[in-house]
Amino acid sequence: MTPLAYFLHSAGPAAAPVRVLDWALAALCIAVCIVIALLLFMALRRRRDAVPQDEAMPQANVADEEGERTANRIVAVGTAISSVLLLGALVGMLRVLAAVAEPPRAPSLTVTVTAYDWWWRVTYRTPGGTTLETANEIHIPTGEPVRVDLKSADVVHAFWVPALAGKTQAIPGQVNHQWLQADHPGVWRGQCTQFCGPQHAHMAMEVVAQAPADFARWLAAQQKPAASAQSGAAQRGEQRFAARCAGCHTVRGTQAAGEQAPDLTHLASRRLIAAGTLANTPANRLDWVAHAQQIKPESLMPDIALTPAEASDLGAWLDTLQ
């Protein structure tokens, strides 16, 4: 689905009223512009036609004043019409805000999303009390409202998944709330929509809606620690990761327990990396490690120089993080 389709279509009840409002406001703005343009054209035309070309100056002044009064009446009528329409738009917006403020029933799941420059930390708390994290990818069950608690770790960001809900800001020191619901399985792109620095445009995420049974299987798989490295190359790659990357990243089941960067326990199971900047392929993972500052300048991920042998070993281990 194209980005335009994401914006113009809704896939859940939190987005449907917003989408109707989008179309209504677009139609209203176009109509108001057309009406104002027509009224202005009519006023100018009548003013010009009211001025005699070959008569005495007093008569011309009288006609000029009459034309001006007519033009003022037309502008007044246009202003009144616009005011009524804009008041109607305000009422419509307030009704939509009330409609999407709360889900129709209690959310079955709460997800905490924390915005960073320039990626998203996604935290789940399971019914058993277990906490697990992923990054830039939010999985939800279809047909169920999901509460999203929004935080920011640095500056003001804005969370927006157009097909599923409206925009909500993530503000440092404050927890804002939103809810999502998908009517059917699918993958929908979201984006930070509050300018937050040089890589604002590359701060995307995906919402993956799955049938409840598939979501339960995904959640169970995510709770497992990383699989043990079996091959010699993967074991060497794990050691290199522990030496050079564990200060920032966490991989559950290993020595890596950093808290400043995305949890990579199940990295290879994700569709995208670098907050939606690259497809998640073995080649792109290594390219990101070696050239992060070329791909996403000023991000907190540094370029890490690797020899061909080191890159091969690290790639072999990253491939195991399913």
Describe this structure in words.
By secondary structure, the protein is α+β, with helices and mostly antiparallel strands. The protein has three domains: 3-100, no CATH class; 109-222, Immunoglobulin-like; 232-318, Cupredoxins -  blue copper proteins (Immunoglobulin-like, Sandwich). It has seven helices and twelve strands. The strands form three sheets. A five-stranded mixed beta sheet has the order 3-2-1-5-8, with no helix packed on it. Strands 4-10-9-6-7 form a five-stranded mixed beta sheet. Helix 2 runs antiparallel to helix 3 (57-100), helix 5 (232-244) packs across helix 7 (308-318) and helix 6 (282-295) crosses helix 7 (308-318). It is elongated, with a radius of gyration of 28 Å. The protein starts with a helix and ends with a helix. Residues 1-5 have low confidence and may be disordered.
The CATH architecture name of the largest domain reads Sandwich
In total, the number of domains comes to: 3
Taken from the alpha-carbon principal axes, the silhouette is: elongated
Number of strands: 12
Number of helices: 7
> Distance N terminus to C terminus?
26 Å
Q: Helical amount among residues, as a percent range?
A: 40-55%
Overall mean pLDDT: 88
Alpha-carbon Rg, integer: 28 Å
**What fraction of the residues are assigned to beta strands by DSSP?**
15-25%
Major sheet description = 5 strands, mixed
